[in-house]
């Protein structure tokens, strides 16, 4: 900028000399020439910065009892518990990704079945719905839930009847609360949703308020004291192999079924877990069909897996749900979010690494 001003000064002086020579006028002084020249200063560059605004943490007045996640309203309605099929023809299922808690247990024929518990979220489609077994009834009764199924074993129905448990059986009288899809063959095409079941509960005069099972959840800062658990393999019988892979960034486990990502049929969303409980339990074959009796009360041994860690546990059915206990018989709290409970035969070759 100074060089530019000097050149301009020289030019003005030269022109002045020329005109003075022609006119005889006196040359202006150097100071006068410099004052007559307007010097334009370049404004300094100002770097633009983007201000990062952190969203304030919301302090909810209540939490959902089965997930530990915050909510604006107290959750007092009874959970809906649905028997969901898991044969290859039933996959992918609908609604499991919105369940608060899911049990996976062997039924007859070496096929696993899901006992899916819904309270904090209300899927528009749940299924395919299948029949109930006695140990499914025991899990449902403990949770004080509305029981949703299509058919039963005789012992299971006897338990429901004698204990007066609220249930919706599509096969025997409750078809109004279900529908069948046209894109799958029976029996793999039966569906329901929580809205229909709650309407049915009102129609049948079932109690609406719920007896909370008081699940125990950890503080945000709590970290499980255990070994690394980035890969989990649960080998149910006849190829019903379940895998979980830990995503450290999201602090969740993604679920895989028979080697493929286990996804929701409606949304294509992959199923996840914040807590994985593996409970080794005694299994007994009752008849030639392969019906089982499964001990869901314990105590027994197993594992709890959360946040990339695994710890050996003792499990026991206490106050309506299977819980994990450490070597000092202190309950191990769950992380807030979704919980999958796998009941497997004693001696199953669980792989965790």
Automatic annotation (TrEMBL):
Record bears the keyword Signal: yes
SUPFAM superfamilies with a match to the protein in the record: YerB-like
Sorted UniProt keywords: Signal
Signal sequence bounds: 1-23
Source species, domain of life: Bacteria
UniProt cross-references to InterPro entries, sorted A to Z: DUF3048_C (IPR035328), DUF3048_N (IPR021416), YerB-like_sf (IPR023158)
Domain DUF3048: 66-207, 233-341
Protein name in UniProt: DUF3048 domain-containing protein
């Amino acid at each position: 900028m100074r060089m530019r001003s000097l050149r301009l000064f020289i030019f003005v002086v030269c022109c002045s000399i020329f005109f003075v020579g022609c006119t005889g006028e006196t040359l202006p002084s150097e100071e006068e020439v410099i004052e007559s020249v307007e010097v334009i200063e370049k404004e300094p560059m100002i770097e633009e910065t983007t201000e990062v605004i952190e969203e304030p943490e919301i302090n909810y007045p209540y939490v959902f009892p089965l997930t530990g996640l915050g909510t604006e309203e107290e959750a007092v309605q009874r959970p809906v518990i649905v028997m969901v099929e898991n044969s290859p023809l039933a996959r992918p299922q609908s609604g499991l990704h919105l369940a608060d808690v899911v049990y996976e247990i062997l039924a007859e024929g070496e096929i696993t079945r899901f006992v899916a518990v819904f309270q904090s979220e209300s899927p528009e489609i749940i299924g395919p719905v299948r029949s109930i077994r006695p140990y499914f009834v025991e899990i449902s009764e403990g949770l004080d839930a509305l029981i949703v199924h299509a058919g039963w074993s005789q012992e299971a129905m006897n338990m429901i009847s004698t204990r007066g448990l609220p249930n919706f059986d599509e096969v025997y009288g409750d078809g109004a609360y279900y529908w069948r899809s046209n894109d799958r063959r029976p029996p793999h095409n039966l569906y329901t949703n929580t809205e229909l079941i709650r309407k049915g509960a009102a129609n049948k005069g079932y109690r609406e308020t719920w007896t909370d099972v008081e699940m125990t959840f950890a503080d945000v800062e709590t970290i499980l004291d255990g070994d690394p658990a980035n890969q989990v393999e649960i080998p149910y019988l006849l190829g019903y192999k379940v895998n979980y892979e830990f995503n450290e960034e999201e602090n969740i486990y993604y679920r895989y079924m028979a080697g493929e990502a286990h996804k929701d049929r409606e949304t294509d969303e992959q199923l996840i877990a914040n807590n994985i409980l593996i409970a080794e339990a005694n299994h007994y074959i009752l008849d030639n069909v392969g019906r089982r009796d499964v001990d869901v009360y314990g105590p027994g041994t197993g594992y709890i897996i959360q946040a990339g860690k695994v710890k050996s546990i003792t499990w026991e059915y206490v106050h309506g749900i299977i819980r994990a206990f450490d070597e000092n018989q202190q309950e191990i709290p769950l992380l807030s979010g979704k919980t999958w409970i796998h009941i497997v035969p004693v001696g199953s070759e669980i792989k965790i690494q």
